[in-house]
Structure formats: C-alpha cells, structure tokens
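If I may wish for something, please sit down with the protein I am sending here and say whether tokens and residues agree:
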Amino acid sequence: MRRRASLVLLSFAVLFAALAPVLRWYAFPRLAKIPPSQYQEMVLEARPATLLQYDTMQAKQVEKVTIVQTLKGNVEESERIERDAGRDVVVWDSLSYVQGPDGKTVSQIPERYIFDAHTQAPVHATGESVDGDPVRREGIEFKWPFLTEKRDYAYFDAQTRTSAPIHYKGTRTFRGLEVYYFEQTVPWTKVPYPKKMPMPGIDATTLEKQTGTTRWYTTRRMFWVEPVTGAPVNGEEIHTEELRGGSLLGGREKVTAFSGHVRMREDYVDHTVALVSSHRTLVLLLVSHLPWTFLTLGTCLLALSLLLEARSRRPDGDAVAEREPEPAGV
C-alpha cells in the first residue's frame, strides 16, 4: 500500500514540476496579451500654458490647455493583419486632440499603431500612419513590454515621425507601486503642421509652402512604468512648439504656438494605478506565483514519495526479530 501511494505522489510531483516551466515559458507568452478590442481614454492638462491665438497670431498665457488621448482597438483590422503576420496583432486607432480653455479644438492628430499583442514590438502593415501619413515605426509607443527591463528602449515620437532612445533613470515608488522611471528629450526639430488646425480658409498641408513659416517642436518626456505589466502609471511632458519665420508672422522671427508642463489629470492617475495593480496580480500569477508554488509543491510531493518508498522497503519489526530455536525432534 505504501509503495502504491509513493508512486501516486511521484506522478503528481512530476506533474507539478513540469507545470512550473510550462506556465512561465509556454503559457505566459500566449496568455499575457493586449486584447484587440481594448478602449481607453486619457486626459492630460497643462496649467498654466502659453497658447497661440490664431486670429491675432499672438501668444497668450491661458489658465489651462487640455489634451485628450483615446486609444480604440480595431478588431477587424487586427484579424486582417493577423492572417498575413501569423501572430496575434493589435491595431490601435489613436486620436490626440488639444483643447483651449474655451473647450474649442486647437489641433488633433490621429494615429494607427500596429503591434505584437505580447511583445509590443511594431508590426509593419498597410495603414500604419500618423495624421494620415504612412510611417514605419521602430521601437515602442504608448506601452512598454511585459516584464520591462532596466535598460533604454527605442521610443517612437509621433511629432517627428522618428524613434530615439528613452532612457531608464532608476527605480522609484509611485502611489505604492515600484516603477521604472524613463526619460527622453527630443531636441528642437522641424515638424509638419497638424492637418486639422483652427485656421479658417488655410490648408494646413500647404501652409509651410505658401507662407514659408515653419513649425518646430521640443519636449522632455517622462514616464513612470510598472515593470510587470509594462504599463505607464503616470506620464508628463515639458512641451514647447514654435512657428518660425515666413509671412505668417508679419516679420517676426518666431512665436510660441504652445508651451506648458503637461501632466495626467489626477482622477486618471488614480484610475490607471488601480487598473494596473489588478493586471499586475494576474501577470505575476503566470510568471511567478503559480510556477514557484507548483515547483515547491512538486518538491514536497517528491520528498514525501521517497519517504514512503523508503518505509515500504523496511522490514517489519516482527520479521527482524530473531526466532527462538525449536526443540530437536525425538
């Protein structure tokens, strides 16, 4: 009976020991994915800010400028691209639009971001674009990979349409979470005008060619990233845009189009931290909690199995006792 029990325990020990690496190295890459139908909205504010008044072409300090960013999963496009890519793909249709203090739209830039559902690496396919212009992204945008590492990453900048390193600057604590802090500075760069701007009667796509006035941009970009999920729980930018030269400025060398320290609104920070904390627990189950639990359980079952096997091989006490010699027959 003991030997039969030891074999059963040994079978379970092998099963749990095998499940540990399977969960970490097989199940995790297949289960930890961004859902293709995800939708999220983020509101950021710059208080105060400098904003160009396009009716007078004069920069003015205003109480606040609001930036609303939406990400909407395009399931139909994801399925179409997956058929050719041979892997799980997410397509995000993003829209970032800037509102002045009166609630009127200052500019808006749509994007289509196509990426691998697990690694967040870009997937190049027809439709990848910024403000209607085809692009070929290198590096990440919006989200870091699961199990983010303490290193620099290439980060795509939608304004310049280029990628550059975003630097790991250390580990910090944010709202009770251990996070990795990343920072990137984009130097002054000439960038295209948004195609939708509050300039009646002027085609933004030909504005630079018609007036000779160019648009320039620089920013210092900061992210606090929860490393298990790879999700930013906070983001800020110290952002400045200028118009330079040309007939649009009436002889002036340059004018500030926008300047401000952009921060996530507090209620969105709270919501994001709570959401990421719950997702973090699920990811840790796959990469840490369950594998270690199964490995520990398998080790204990193996030890118990060996113990029962050893006891089953030990003779009973009565059997080892020396028998009394029988009297010789008459």
